[in-house]
Amino acid sequence: MSEIRKLKPEGLWRNFDELTKVPRPSGHTEKVRKFLVDFGKQVGIEAFVDTANNVIFRKPATPGYENRKTVVLQAHIDMVPQKAPSSSHNFETDPIQTRIIDGWVYGTDTTLGADDGLGVAAIMSIMESKDLKHGPLEAVLTNDEETGMYGANDLPTDVLTGDILMNLDSETWGKFVIGSAGGVDIDTSLEYKEVENTYDAAVKITLKGLRGGHSGLEINEGRANANKEMARLVRKAISELGARLVSWDGGNMRNAIPFKAEVVLALPKANVKSLEKMVAKQQELVADEFKLIEKNVEFLCESVDIPKTLVPVEIQDNLINSITACHDGVLRFIPAYPDVVETSSNLAIINITSNKASFKILVRSSREDMKEVLVNRIISCFDMAGMKSVASGSYGGWDPNPNSEILNLLKKIYKDQNGEDAIVQVDHAGLECSIILGKYPNMDVVSFGPTIRSPHTSTERAEISSCEPFWKLLVKSLEEIPVKNR
């Protein structure tokens, strides 16, 4: 039996353990959708998949609670598939291997999937329970949140009837989120005709060991972006050693700070030793610059087969210039809340081959005007490189309502149970609440959850001690949901 099944609350961890056995990386959620629908039928509730591939649950009220407001519980079913370089894990086929270390649950060299598997597991536990007291319940378990919030964006406007939305995707226990940033994806690309390679050597440079992390929650921590740091080295190699760009592969998730990048350069064989020295010196430089943040910076240099073609020199220079100039990181903090990021961008994915370049950037902001400012700035940067850019998947921010009825109820219960006040704040990370509110504008919304750290990385972990009080708060709040207005 898995160790985590011995943890409290038993139902939450048992259901989370079952989830870890079902592959559910973003873009491949068919197995978990079937698992959840089968689960719903087994426990005797209504369960189906809507037209956006979201799983919908409905559970009737406990006798005597039929007149309470209907609560919609919400979490997302997909997980970010990140793994350590040494891992051979296949997220489409392999279960997550959990382990307990010093009061935290980890995966084994992979993301754990607590984001947002613990939210899903909590909902499953509520739905299967026969002794909890609650009014009418619905649940929407959204599809592919991590890659573009597709399930929320395509959620039908006639599938939910609830008055209150409890999003279970926040990641610090004791904090109630009542607002979040909006976002937009930028995809930029350029096709070109490759040119013949005349150089007699080729080298692959790998930058790895960076922390990476969540591009909303951790963008303010000054973590190194592998694509940006690689660009510094490549510019030097081109200008000082006559190197030419063959390929670039950096980052793999739009909402994860890239922790690894690989570049292949062609160059005269006589300059290979000089490149190796340059790479070693760059490792020392980056390690020193980020010494309080990044502990495992590693630049590797290895000879590879000589390629037949290269990126044309003018295209190469434009691409490197655009990567160097593209904004990445925090642009501005909220003036009224100077500790909260308002606007940021993440240069998330770079793929360059001998005949095509494609980049993906995620822009976040709690202000629509500043989101537009940063999008235009980034697109202008790529325009100068002759690239074609498309902004898509835009979603608005979630405007906070400090007078929310469900918020005030949760604050009261939290203080009664824990003897202290909860924190109420706005997050820079994007939550699906704003999108769902756009479709169901009369809902009263709040987000909370147990403590999770380093989501979107192979060191993602969930704090065991936060899960039981989270569960107790959720159960008590459902019991005390107010009567529906007539």
Report on the architecture of this protein.
The chain has helices at residues 10-20, 30-42, 114-128, 150-153, 226-241, 272-289, 313-325, 368-383, 405-418, 433-439, 464-479, and strands at residues 46-49, 55-59, 71-76, 99-101, 104-106, 137-142, 164-167, 175-180, 182-191, 195-196, 201-208, 244-250, 261-267, 298-303, 309-310, 329-334, 337-352, 356-365, 388-395, 423-427, 444-447, 452-453, 461-463. The chain is built from 11 helices and 23 strands. The chain is an alpha+beta fold and 486 residues long. Helix 1 (10-20) packs across helix 3 and helix 5 packs antiparallel against helix 6. It folds into 2 domains: 4-181 and 398-480, Aminopeptidase (3-Layer(aba) Sandwich); 183-395, Alpha-Beta Plaits (2-Layer Sandwich), CATH 3.30.70.360. The strands form 5 sheets. Strands 9, 11, 12, 13, 14, 16, 17, 18 and 19 form a 9-stranded antiparallel beta sheet that branches. It has a 6-stranded mixed beta sheet with strand order 1-2-6-3-7-21. The chain has a 4-stranded antiparallel beta sheet with strand order 4-5-23-22. Its EC number is 3.4.13.18. Residues 206-290 form the Peptidase M20 dimerisation domain. Keywords: Cobalt, Hydrolase, Metal-binding, Metalloprotease, Protease, Zinc. Pfam families: M20_dimer, Peptidase_M20. This is Cytosol non-specific dipeptidase.
